[in-house]
């Protein structure tokens, strides 16, 4: 690889090891309660993308919990937001942003674009956990993966469902330190958007030797791999998405 600048990804913030600002962005997908409880322990700021507010409201059946875990904002075109939910959060003085003028992006993209444009969310210490980014319709999942790869390099975003977590690894050389609490050593994978030359260190089945020196969606991708270390080094000539299985589901 020509560019030897080392990019570092440190996921130990999920273990409470760093003083990071955590934003939990909830999409309009079913919320897995054990996963939600794990992330709430990180004291995140909660933001809902349109119908994600319905999901949060329905998850928290107890009125005390609904008061305790209020979102700071509900953002989107609001066509999925139920009236009772909107009225409840309006009464609680939750910010409700109608971005229906933008019909070229999904509710999630509207919400996320709005957040990363704000100074309060643009610093390097902010981590975005996007709950509900995977699952459901495959075209929605693929759109979200495409969006993840399009984000600016300084945005630290983690896309999740109840089974897995994905984050972007930029082209060049990257050292990844994993969360011992959240990320399972088995069941990891690498998703390329384009044909990518790649090599790895720290996996049971490392990439880098032919035919596994190149990965692409129309040839081969690495799935069901396994980490042999809590740190993995990846060198690639295009951005890829790393996928981790979630640890607490395998306990």
TrEMBL record:
Q: Name one GO biological process term.
A: thiamine diphosphate biosynthetic process
Q: Which reaction does it catalyse?
A: thiamine + ATP = thiamine diphosphate + AMP + H(+)
Check the record and name the InterPro entries matching this protein: Thi_PPkinase, Thiamin_pyrophosphokinase_euk, Thiamin_PyroPKinase_B1-bd, TPK_B1-bd_sf, TPK_catalytic, TPK_catalytic_sf
| Cited Gene3D superfamilies | Thiamin pyrophosphokinase, catalytic domain
| Record keywords, A-Z | ATP-binding, Kinase, Nucleotide-binding, Transferase
Pfam families in alphabetical order: TPK_B1_binding, TPK_catalytic
Give the Enzyme Commission number. Answer: 2.7.6.2
Q: What class of enzyme is it?
A: transferase
Gene Ontology molecular function:
ATP binding; kinase activity; thiamine binding; thiamine diphosphokinase activity
- Which pathway? Cofactor biosynthesis; thiamine diphosphate biosynthesis; thiamine diphosphate from thiamine: step 1/1
Source taxon at top rank: Eukaryota
What residues does the Thiamin pyrophosphokinase thiamin-binding domain cover? 172-240
NCBIfam families (alphabetical):
thi_PPkinase
Q: Spell out the family assignment given in the record's similarity comment.
A: Belongs to the thiamine pyrophosphokinase family.
Instruction: State the name under which the record lists this protein.
Output: Thiamine pyrophosphokinase
